[in-house]
Design a protein that fits this description.
heterotetramer, A: 321 residues, alpha/beta, Rossmann fold, 2 domains, 7-stranded mixed beta sheet, 14 strands, globular, B: alpha/beta, 5-stranded parallel beta sheet, 12 helices, 10% strand
Chain lengths: 321, 325, 325, 321
């Protein structure tokens, strides 16, 4: 079956809505499906389960928390990644903290879905963030699927999970298509080697997995690159990565968030705490404190790209042990 | 709704009063760490509103939340144990004063963030209704909270979706040191009108008056009339927080405090009972509170090895932070 | 305030209209990347309100912001260059459609986050007043924004501190695909009443009517009467965003769209001019817009080496993100 | 002059209010001084410049942004660290982004002051966060002073700085006193070696500097510990740290934020990108996703402490090269 990333998300929502009465969707323009993800779902499941909300992100995020406390499994769609900044308190201070603070009296199974995270070319500074490290820092399960099958499987797992989960669907991956045999839930904290290699391990997150694969193909013959896709950045599959990096001894991490205190830092630190690398590792990320400028050439310049990744791989591969 | 039960109301206000006084003693004794926000003077509101609710109905409280938790039916002993941080507490000692919760009696928790609980309660009540449970919810908040955008968003959501919620504003005249007039443009009831919610003002010092207003509102709400707001005008008899017992902050004129304290909900309700009946209730309450304190202090402190228990309901385990790499 | 200048108002609505139409052409031609939220149909509001302001007064716009920026006096050529992402744009191509700003004419910027600008404008106006500048501010927002808590908090702050701000709600009936009735419990003007702010409803399709209401409000506000709200009822003639030109979303009945488009502010105001005068203005506007497009397309694209220019006003430099370690 | 940390903050505010008419304070209960930091300032500077606000954190944070755009230098006090979650959008999406997005037309010089960040024993889950890595990630200048002199100097620098700055004053440092000769601004991105040593470099943040010094004293004779205080976590004084760690070859980072994507990860990664350590580095932090439980013993167990630090130092010092 040929499946697009977008349709995979739609399919995941539809399957879970059909499977479990306690699942419902909440968000802005989800009935009409302005994000192109929820299209058709209102017709099938009705406006009670595909609920359009007023522009009140804080209230509807907390409404989802309350509904989850009462046994529902809300999926909240956000139209813009930075809307997560607006509801950060509601997610981190309430949804995340309730189970511990109540001494285990409750669970808060909410999924926050951000279709089109990262740069959508031309949407500029306030629409182009990719804040998954913020959620990894506060300790909320955070998935950044790279492929249609993973988009399906991670979203399904998120909905079935008993704690809050954020699913970032990068704008740069929404148009990816692939042949999929079987759709199935994908477990959290289980990465996957997308391409085997011997010389350098490249960890790539989200849409950058595809860039990493392209670069690896280009470099084939010169450098043998192994591409590791963590799928969830929290929890992170450290064992999976260590299996790769203990072989290659060389590590590059490529991700589309800001550099400082980002997931690349976390990955590299977790590795060097345990394993001696042959050469110093490298990060290919957004700059510190990045704000994406509007003009397409500037926007691209701020994002991690294939050139920078190629340079980093060459650097790490050449570096004498 | 049936009419007020004068003895029941008195028992509740008296219980909250004595519970708070004993809790303050325990703060002074170092048994309650971090202090509390005493509910002294405002007891009539929690008592009156919760008497209008059913056991299956839901409430959320505030940072000044013991009264709400007790009035809704949580065990005073386990509540006091929670304040003392004991394993026997409502939250196994994980929540403390500002997070005491007992979902088994419909208390979704006190909440330490001003204005945050309204939308949470609205979602919970809506979810129950979808399942066919005939519940309503009551969410308590202070006069300070009506300036928080997140609460105003919750007003809109509840009104729009006709979620059966009673918004209870405890107007004690101050948000910490900020007088209402310095913080609220317009009025508190006007905030409700903005979202087409009926609003009623009531004397929060009179438990029966509060009960009457709340019972009428809850009946309308339960019948599908949509959410309402009650502004209960009250006065905080003691400090914003017990740290004020140590550090004097100067913001309420002494005459005002004296006048406020003169209208004591415990006496107002107590005077409605025959003296011997009142004395009887007082004795019962005393025994309950004595037992609560004893239970609390006898409870074991939680084992530090379980510090991260319940961090994830899913059973996910977090890497520890110690030097173990 | 002096009375309306019919020609001036017409010039502004016509300028915005033609600017938007040409911008849509440039979106189709791939010269404006990311699309725009067209202001078509709502021109009378920006024109009428800004005509009631002085050059030193401040405004903030919205995601649908070109009209506000132009009406307040920003250069159409540099505005169009900004939309095209050129170094010659208002923001040196760093902002684009949703962030176009020109502080030199009092435009603190369009703002892509619904409901966010009101409090920012309030702070800016307050600061100017403290320095003794006799400014007022006008902040534009849609019907969707009145459900954002952050905007309601701004209403309270402005009203409480009597900051001279005009809150202008452009009620075009929809927030993206959500009709007002599905989102707003109560009314928009009731939101103002809640904070003791006077509110006026005006026909947003009539530039002179908007101007009259805005001028009267601004005069009261400037004289110290405190903030006010104007609800301008209008209709969006085109898509929420140009992506709808590509992807059809079904949410407005065709009859409604036809009826909405029948009341065109450009014609309503144009009909007040003698035909030759109108033709003259049209020609001037055409020349201005032609020049703006030419200027925009002639402007150089910014050098990627400067992608992080102005990230820090303090001159702090950020580490780059490339593979350089 | 004997100065307490609290008084140092008060003094910094008073000096800047006196020096510059454009400085003003904004916050909840700042007139009365409920946080014990702004006490006396209203009497001296008046209620217009020491402005009490309604409980409207989002609006007053954005009000400060607007005032800053118009040339003022607001200092916004927050009573609880998690209130920064509530205004995260207002700070990150607006105050931080305006200069770039406007192409350099403006500056937003706002200081956000959080007196009593981290655990105040007994305040439990929603009052005990220490979210400085979030601000380091988004690229906002973030100071975490350890000493009274730095509390003064960093707060003064923050107020004079032309971009937004967050100043965390850890609860664990508020009672520190020291003899101070001269009060002066402290530059950002300039760390300081608080104690010289040869065997292991310990980077400690905020109040943990004092714990690190105590541990270093205890270990004197066994392990010679150098204690490095970065003072600002963003920008971070990497050169200063490298000077230390190239000598010792051993690194432990001790900070009171969550582990994943925290400042410890950033520091370690920045070092290993450039320098080969003799042995794997270690982190002593809060756990991943930490929520502080109420009971004091549990609260302590979740925070990084002297025992864990001592163990980490021993481990790193013993580890064979
Ligand atoms: C969002 C938020 N802002 C600030 C605080 C700090 N704070 C705790 S209680 C309080 C005053 C609350 O006043 P009010 O709502 O009137 O309730 P009261 O204390 O009078 O019962 C403040 C400012 C908080 N907990 N949450
Ligand atoms: C806080 C926030 N929520 C959601 C969005 C996404 N969004 C952009 S415009 C829009 C609709 C706004 O409606 P309205 O305020 O009525 O303005 P209009 O588009 O009709 O001019 C939405 C939901 C946003 N930009 N900001
Ligand atoms: Mg109050
Ligand atoms: Mg609209």
């Amino acid at each position: 079956m040929r499946l697009s990333y977008r349709r995979a998300l739609t399919r995941a929502l539809a399957d879970e809505l059909a499977r479990d009465e306690s699942v419902f969707l909440l968000g802005e323009d989800v009935r009409v499906g302005a994000s192109m993800i929820t299209s058709g779902l209102c017709r099938r499941f009705g406006p009670e389960r595909v609920r359009d909300t007023p522009l009140s992100e804080q209230a509807f995020t907390s409404f989802a928390t309350g509904a989850a406390l009462a046994g529902m499994r809300p999926v909240v769609e956000f139209q813009i990644p930075s809307l997560l900044f607006l509801v950060f308190e509601q997610i981190v201070n309430h949804a995340h903290k309730f189970p511990l603070m109540t001494g285990g009296q409750c669970a808060v199974p909410v999924t926050y879905l951000v279709p089109g995270s990262g740069s959508r070319t031309g949407w500029a500074g306030q629409h182009s963030d990719h804040p998954y490290p913020l959620f990894a820092h506060v300790g909320i399960v955070t998935a950044v699927p790279a492929t249609p099958a993973d988009a399906y499987g991670l979203l399904v797992s998120a909905i079935r999970h008993d704690d809050p989960v954020v699913v970032f669907a990068p704008a740069g991956a929404l148009d990816v298509r692939e042949d999929v045999e079987r759709l199935a839930p994908v477990p959290f904290g289980r990465g996957v080697v997308r391409r085997a290699g011997d010389d350098v391990t490249v960890v790539a997150v989200g849409h950058l997995v595809h860039d990493a694969l392209a670069v690896a193909d280009e470099l084939a013959g010169q450098v043998s690159v192994e591409v590791f896709d963590p799928r969830t950045v929290y929890p992170f599959d450290l064992d999976g990565l260590l299996a790769s990096v203990t072989r290659t001894g060389r590590l590059v991490v490529c991700d589309d968030a800001n550099r400082s205190c980002g997931i690349a830092a976390e990955i590299i630190t977790s590795v060097v705490e345990r394993v001696r690398l042959a050469v110093p590792p490298r990060r290919v990320t957004r700059p510190d404190g990045a704000v994406l400028p509007f003009a397409p050439g500037l926007d691209r310049a701020v994002q991690p790209g294939r050139e920078a990744l190629t340079a980093a791989i060459h650097h790490v591969a050449k570096d004498p042990t | 709704m049936t009419g007020a039960d004068p003895v029941g109301l008195y028992r509740t206000v008296r219980l909250i009063r004595r519970f708070e006084q004993r809790a303050i003693d325990l703060v002074r004794a170092g048994q309650i760490v971090g202090g509390i926000h005493p509910y002294l003077g405002q007891e009539g509101i929690a008592a009156g509103v919760c008497a209008a609710l059913r056991p299956t109905d839901l409430v959320t409280g505030t940072h000044r939340g013991h009264g709400h938790v007790l009035a809704k039916g949580a065990d005073p002993a386990r509540t006091m144990a929670e304040l003392c941080g004991r394993e026997t507490g409502l939250n196994r000692g994980r929540g403390g004063s500002m997070h005491a919760a007992d979902l088994s009696v419909g208390v979704l928790g006190a909440n330490a963030i001003v204005g945050a609980a309204g939308a949470i309660l609205t979602g919970a009540v809506w979810a129950h209704r979808r399942r066919g449970d005939d519940v309503v919810g009551a969410t308590f908040f202070g006069d300070g909270a009506v300036n928080e955008g997140m609460l105003l968003e919750a007003f809109n959501l509840a009104a729009l979706w006709r979620v059966p919620v009673l918004f209870v504003c405890e107007n004690n005249g101050y948000a910490t040191t900020m007088p209402v007039a310095g913080a609220v443009a317009g009025t508190i009831t006007g905030r409700a009108a903005a979202f087409d919610m009926p609003a009623t003002v009531v004397d929060g010092q009179d438990p029966e008056a509060v009960h009457a207003v709340a019972a009428a509102a809850v009946a309308r709400i339960r019948a599908g009339g949509g959410p309402e707001l009650v502004e209960a005008q009250t006065y905080r008899f003691d400090a914003h927080h017990t740290f004020e017992h140590v550090v004097r902050l100067d913001y309420r004129p002494p005459e005002e405090v004296a006048a406020g304290r003169a209208r004591d909900p415990v006496d107002i309700q107590g005077d409605r009972l025959a003296p011997h009946r009142r004395a009887q209730v007082d004795a019962e309450v005393e025994a309950t509170v004595d037992a609560a304190v004893a239970f609390a202090l006898a409870g074991p402190e939680p084992d530090p090895a379980g510090a991260l228990d319940h961090l994830y309901a899913s059973g996910l385990t977090a890497r520890a932070g110690g030097g173990q790499g």
